[in-house]
Amino acid sequence: MGTTRMTATRNGAAGLLYAGRQGKPHVKDAQGVINQRVLGSTGVNIDPKYAQQQMGVVWRQHDTKKRNARELYRSTWSWPNEVLDPRNPHDVDKALMMGAEVAKRMWPGYQTAIYAQADGKGHKLHLHMETNAINPVTGRALRAEQTSQKQLAKIADEVELENGLEPLPKLRQAWEKKPHAQIAKVAAGKYSWREDLQQRIQAGLADKRAVDWQTLKPVLAEHGVDVHVRRNKKTGAINGLSYKLNFGDHQRPVRAIRLGEMYQKESVDNGLKQNAAELTAEQLKDVQFGGIAAISELTPRIKHQHATTESEYADVDEKPAIHNIDAGKLRQAREAIEQQQQRLYERERQQAADREAQRLNRLKQQKQRAAKQERDRQDRQRRNREADGPSLG
To answer: Vertex 170, ends 164 and 173: CA angle to 5°?
Structure first.
């Protein structure tokens, strides 16, 4: 039940130096057992003691510095102390063995130096798996799934199961990202704007009024969050999302990918569809066109309808906030929204075309001025020669 993480660097020597440097741990062990920074090491297709020299030969052969290419992929794999104890040499050896197995499956044919450490706060056993981005034989760079955090987590889960460990649920690994600083602040009872943002977004996504992308923005605004949807200008397809708190001193936008899968386009879209599926047809109309003002008006009706076998329209007249919209009016409303979106798209396209025309016109004027200046210069030279008269040579 370990957690994994992967990053890349163009300074491979520095990455290897950090992972494999011997010495005392950063944080002193109260029990006095962990007195070395590196508890053990192993390697796949490399000797970890000479990893920097052996990988350096490959990097020089392929001019990675000159090409500013990535030299090293740095992966970490850590476990709670109750799962693998860094003070137990057997657990350290087991972690190194599992790390080597993951390297063989994840990066076959590549050089990977693996170092076991427990020098941080809490003294949790963790591995640094340093993988050469360049294959020493073929010269091919790591790509696709070999650089995927999700693929690394999948293989690590398989190896853990084979060695009697229960992997963490995916929700803990990829569904929501929480940096160590955020976790530490929450544990210490301090305010974390990132934690606050994530909780507010979750509350907004759970709000049953958020049934599509049009209703999501005002619902999140009520929960204190501004959402920005990035779209392709040509197709209108959603390219990505970013969020920010709309109050206080922490109004900094954060891309959804940095918060986790829960907050990204596909998951949000599925949540919106799920919210819409839980409403009756009449409730959905009212949510989309402003008939329901607050979730407090909607929730009791959902609970009531889930507990009764009556028709889904049985209690429509009980609350004035729920009103009927016939199919014709609904179609007209949808057509009006589509026409408005099309007009906005056409206006943006026309504005882009106007900006391009202005740019071309400025270039044309610059060329004309440059040509005129060149003609004037030549005229001045000609007049000067005429004024000087013939040479007295």
So the answer is: 95
- Identity of residue 263: Y
Residues 6 or more apart whose CB falls under 8 angstroms from that of 148 comprise: 6
Tokens representing 174?
A: 């990829």
How far is 79 from 126, CA to CA, in rounded Å? 6
Q: Which segment of 76-85, 88-97, 280-289 scores lowest on mean pLDDT?
A: 280-289
Q: Are strands 254-255 and 38-44 parallel, antiparallel or unpaired?
A: unpaired
Compare 168 and 300 and report the one with higher pLDDT. Answer: 168
Q: What is the pLDDT of residue 283?
A: 64
CA dist., res. 193 & res. 316, Å (int): 41
d(CA 51, CA 345): 55
- Rounded CA gap, 257 and 12, in Å? 26
> Helical H runs in 234-326?
265-277, 281-288, 295-306
Q: What share of the chain is helix, strand, coil (3-state, %, to 5)?
A: 50, 15, 35
- Pairwise CA distance, residues 306 & 278, whole Å: 10
Tell me the HSE value of 376 on the side-chain side, using a 13 A CA sphere. Answer: 6
3 state DSSP class of 113: strand
The more confidently predicted of residues 387 and 15 is: 15
Angle at the Cα of 208 from the Cα atoms of 206 and 209, rounded to 5 degrees: 120
**Tokens representing 253?**
């936008």
In single-letter form, the type of residue at position 75 comes to: S
- Cβ atoms of 169 and 190 within 8 Å: the answer is no
Helix axes 51-61, 12-20, angle to 10 degrees: 170
User: DSSP for 82-121?
Assistant: TTS-TT-HHHHHHHHHHHHHHHHHHSTTS-EEEEEE--ST
Residue 167's pLDDT band, with cuts at 50, 70 and 90, is low
The pLDDT value given to residue 207? 82
Looking at residue 258, the DSSP 8-state letter turns out to be: G
Residue 156 near residue 102 (C-beta atoms within 8 A): yes
Predicted model pTM = 0.49
Mean pLDDT score, 318-335: 49
pLDDT for residue 300 is more than 60: no
Mean of all residue pLDDT scores within the chain: 80
Q: What angle do CA 168, 171, 173 make, to 5 degrees?
A: 60
Give me the count of residues in the chain: 393
